[in-house]
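Q: Ribosome modulation factor, please. Structure only.
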Amino acid sequence: MASDARPDDTRQWSLESLNKAYQQGYMAGLTGQPNSQQPYAAEVPAAAWEAGWEDGHEQLLRQQKSA
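A: Structure for Ribosome modulation factor:
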C-alpha cells in the first residue's frame, strides 16, 4: 500500500477555511503586497491564497490603469 500523498494532502479542508485563505490572498494582492508573503505551509490553503492573490493583484492593476 504505497502512497505518494504527503500527510497534509489528506486533511479535509472546509469551504470556510479555503474561502478565508482566498479572501486573505485577495486582499494582499489588492493592497500590493508581494506574493512571497503567502502564509500557509499546507498545499491546499496555499493554493487558495495564491488564487486570491492573483485575482486581487489583477484587480489592482486594472484600477491603476484606469486612474
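A: Brief note, in case it's useful. The chain has one domain: 13-66.
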